[in-house]
Design goal:
about 210 residues, alpha/beta, UDP N-Acetylglucosamine Acyltransferase, domain 1, 2 domains, five-stranded parallel β-sheet, Trimer_LpxA-like_sf
Length: about 210
């Protein structure tokens, strides 16, 4: 039933890791995969060639995301990648076009992807091989990123393009706004005698 060759045995190790990872929570799964203790990896995330993945601290990877690190993949500190995302570092296009799409084909092209620190990659987005995403960049959900993304910018669309640029002052102002809103929600919950679980329960329609 099982093939006893180098490729089969190598792939089987990944299959076993995926199976075992299905029984772990997000922190346990990251630890099991040898990633930083502060990393959280949600269920059904697949990492291709994990030995080529460099992951920073305090990263979050959503459900059903595929991280292809076969060509080299670096993800900076405090970066989140949403659910159902695809990050590619290789392509078999030429192997397909030349009818040479066999295992080990020398027409498989690989280029590294680098995602900076403090980035937010929205759900259902695709990052193509060879792309560099600068620090504190935002990729809107459902985007296809085919070119480098400048730091402190928001990109969206297919292919993704820059829609907004921001700076530290903008981020600071937005952080203060959200902290104030969450503090108000916590205060409202406490006034109702509730214990906020996530720190920011919604305000009721009556404003209480």
């Amino acid at each position: 039933m099982f093939s006893d060759d180098e490729r089969s045995n190598r792939l089987r190790a990944g299959i076993v890791n995926d199976f075992v990872g299905g029984f772990l929570n997000d922190v346990e799964r990251a630890r099991f995969l040898g990633l930083p203790e502060t990393t959280r990896i949600r269920e059904r995330t697949k990492i291709v060639s994990p030995e080529n993945l460099v992951m920073g601290e305090h990263c979050w990877i959503g459900e059903n995301t595929v991280l292809d690190a076969s060509g080299g993949l670096e993800i900076g500190d405090h970066t989140s990648i949403g659910l159902n995302c695809l990050v590619f570092t290789h392509s078999s296009w030429l192997a397909n076009m030349t009818l040479e799409n066999y295992s080990g084909s020398d027409l498989i092209e690989r280029k590294p992807v680098k995602i900076g620190k403090g980035c937010f990659i929205g759900g259902n987005s695709v990052i193509m091989m060879g792309v560099t995403i600068g620090d504190c960049a935002t990729v809107s959900p459902l985007s296809v990123v085919t070119k480098d993304v400048p730091a402190y910018s928001l990109v969206s669309g297919n292919p993704a393009r820059v829609f907004q640029r921001y700076d530290q002052e903008h981020i600071k102002a937005e952080a203060e706004r959200v902290r104030a809103e969450n503090a108000a929600r916590r205060a409202a919950a406490q006034a109702r005698g509730e214990a906020p679980v996530w720190g920011s329960p919604a305000v009721r329609r009556d404003g209480q």
